[in-house]
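Sequence dictates fold. Next comes a concrete instance:
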Amino acid sequence: MNGTHDDEQARFFRERGFGLATGFGERPAVLVIDIMKAFSDATLPLGANLDRQILETNRILDAAHAIGAPVFFSYVAYDEPNCADAGIWGEKMTGLYGLTADSPIVALDERLHRLPSDAVFVKKYASCFFGTDLVSRLTSRRIDTLIITGCTTSGCVRASAVDAIQYGFRPIVAREAVGDRSQPAHDQSLFDIQAKYGDVLDVDTVVTYLQQRTAAAARL
């Protein structure tokens, strides 16, 4: 998506009430989706170059850690014989069969600024909410804002953003901190998320919000 056609599409949606801002809430958490070796090594079947996305994600992680905001990392792995726990999804993307629980490629990328206190959980499908306890982890902390980074924009990021708003959280997708194997798929997914499911904001805006939360906490 680019150029005049993009502007016309954006205007078309705005005129019909799409793309309004849900905004930030008061209690944020950060969700880093699947920045694991299988997806961040462009030489692997499921991989892409995520160098910039990792740098931008680390900016958000540093700001979140500074205020003690909860941070969650997801990764995909299958532990049943022949990856039976991938279900029919494995028939759609056979690259998933390489994501066995004992494979080194399911490890999170070591460049991430992950602290021992950060939560890490495994998932089997696209959404971070499907078949996991993420909702209870967020609600027990009274989280209202979910800042999303990771990959892929058209897959797990989009699916997680859709589920986040359906569960009553405010999804904030950090534009420069999400990536995809396909630029057109990435662009279209960000357009869709902004139009219908969450706020797509630049990393500077997200970091400023987190820093302001620090200032607000200091005044209490």
Observations:
- The chain has one domain: 25-218.
- The two ends are 45 Å apart (CA to CA).
- The beta strands are 28-33, 71-76, 119-123, 145-151, 170-179, 199-201.
- The mean pLDDT is 93.
